[in-house]
Specification:
315 residues, alpha+beta, 434 Repressor (Amino-terminal Domain), 5-stranded antiparallel sheet, 13 helices
Length: 315
């Protein structure tokens, strides 16, 4: 005779496992943030020799005005409840910025967690908005950087930057797996660091999700850079930034990156690239596939080498 576990039991087990993963993630995040600080940052003597960098747990508890045992349990990922007032004190002590503070609250389950949603079909109105933005490049992406939809201008802007077939349709995966990415994006290190921080921030809403866990596992096994960045537990919000891209025909283009929330798709956003300067505005038509051949592009439009630029971040 075969017996089956009730679906309610399976759901409870999944919720319990997700909670355990979330609390473990919280402990690692607190430990990483604690390691950034020293007693000297608070006017305290360094004390006896330290085996590891950063503040000790008891020092954080003292500065935050919470119990040492309670804070130790919090950092160990134990199943304890924390009020927003206590978390505020910890956040102030660890000098968390807004994105890090929100990340802390999510992991501590001090804010409502978004309920699981089925995969959504892209509404026709969103498709029309994307196409209407042409000639500005625009894409619809989710919090894992999957490219859900792009308009023609975006497809053609990045059409030639891959030397291998793009099978991922994911901004972060493409940057990590494309061998020439460092040469195409002069500020590659800053750009990938930002993407990983955004991914880590969104991860707090998806701890325990099998697709997320597998994605992160594969990225970490594939890229030492990703693995090292992921271990830093850095988180980031959307911020004003510029993408500088060395296009094979148009040369150096500098684009302001804007993100627009999509109310009917909470985990998605529209990313729009607008020219930062007159030179980029004049070169942008050269990124289209029906543009003039490469040999007809003025020599000054194509840099001889990838000179450093002010800023480059891809979303």
């Amino acid at each position: 005779m075969v017996t089956y576990e009730p679906k309610d039991g399976l759901r409870k087990d999944a919720a319990r496992l997700a909670g355990e993963r979330r609390h473990a993630e919280l402990g690692k995040f607190l430990k990483a943030r604690r390691a950034r600080l020293s007693p000297g940052d608070f006017g305290m003597p360094p004390g006896s020799r330290r085996r590891t960098p950063g503040l000790r747990r008891e020092e954080v508890a003292l500065l935050a005005g919470v119990g040492v045992t309670w804070y130790t349990w919090l950092e160990q990922g134990r199943q304890i409840k924390a009020s927003t007032q206590v978390l505020d004190a910890v956040a102030r002590t660890l000098r968390l910025d807004r994105a890090e503070r929100e990340h802390l609250y999510r992991l501590a389950e001090a804010t409502p967690l978004r309920t699981e949603r089925p995969r959504e079909v892209i509404p026709g109105s969103i498709r029309e908005i994307l196409q209407s933005l042409d000639p500005l490049p625009a894409s619809l992406i989710n919090s894992r950087f999957d490219i859900l939809l792009s308009n023609d201008a975006s497809e053609e802007l990045f059409w030639e930057w891959h030397t291998m077939p793009c099978v991922h349709k994911n901004t972060l995966w493409c940057c990590i797996t494309e061998p020439t990415a460092r040469g195409k994006f002069p500020e590659y290190e800053d750009h990938v660091r930002y993407l990983v921080a955004r991914l880590r921030s969104a991860y707090s809403r998806n701890v325990g999700d099998p697709d997320w866990e597998e994605d992160i596992r594969r990225l970490a096994s594939l890229s030492r850079d990703f693995s090292d960045l992921w271990a830093r537990h850095e988180v980031a919000d959307c911020e004003p930034r510029t993408l500088t891209y060395l296009h094979p025909r148009a040369g150096q283009v500098s684009l302001v990156v804007s993100e627009l929330d999509v109310a009917m798709m909470p985990e998605a956003r529209i990313v729009v690239y607008t020219p930062r300067d007159a030179a980029t505005r004049s070169r942008l038509p050269l990124t289209r596939r029906e543009a003039v051949p490469a040999e007809a592009v003025p020599a000054e439009a194509v840099p001889a080498e990838a000179d450093p630029v002010e800023a480059a971040t891809v979303s």
